[in-house]
Amino acid sequence: MGEDLSDVRALIERIPLFAEVLDPGQIATLAAKATVYAVPPRTVLMSEGDYGDSMFAVIDGAVEVTVEGARSGSREVAMLGPGDIVGEMSLMTGARRTATVTSVVQTRVLQIRKAALEAVLAHSPDLVIGLGAMLARRQIELERISEDEHAQRILGLRASEIVAAIRRFFFPDQAERE
Questions:
Q1: What does the pLDDT look like over 137-165, one tens digit per residue?
Q2: Which CATH number does the domain housing residue 26 bear?
Q3: Does residue 140 lie in a domain region?
Q4: Domain residues for 93?
Q5: Is residue 178, in this structure, part of any structural domain at all?
Q6: Are 8 and 36 in contact (CB under 8 A)?
């Protein structure tokens, strides 16, 4: 969409998942590989159960997050807006998507793909621990939101499991040797 690299870098710096663990050089590397998209209303960004190789940060607009419950059918678990992120667990671990995310209004999102994150992690594999800890905190938040037993089972990963999953997903050759 013609976003200036410094604008994209500023967007990434506002995402706690990255701002808390990446240095300015790593943020610049990630920004150079990220893409900004305009998304029309009622567009599905990701579907529950799919594999995902990217995450999205909402720049402006709004997205609805829904999950399929074993007893309750589809239900909204969150409405997210500017600065919020979705899809980070799938991106980091290779796990299936735990929710469906749909734009509610005209929305702009920043998409970060696995290849972009690999470029950062390849030079700083120890970042996996910081990212794993951040994802574990996000999991706790999601568990509080979800009352459905199906969703809690999917979301019940712990920090050590998340770090192991990230390592397997980004560094499969190293994970086999451990």
A1: 766 766 665 555 444 444 445 666 777 87
A2: 2.60.120.10
A3: yes
A4: 5-171
A5: no
A6: yes
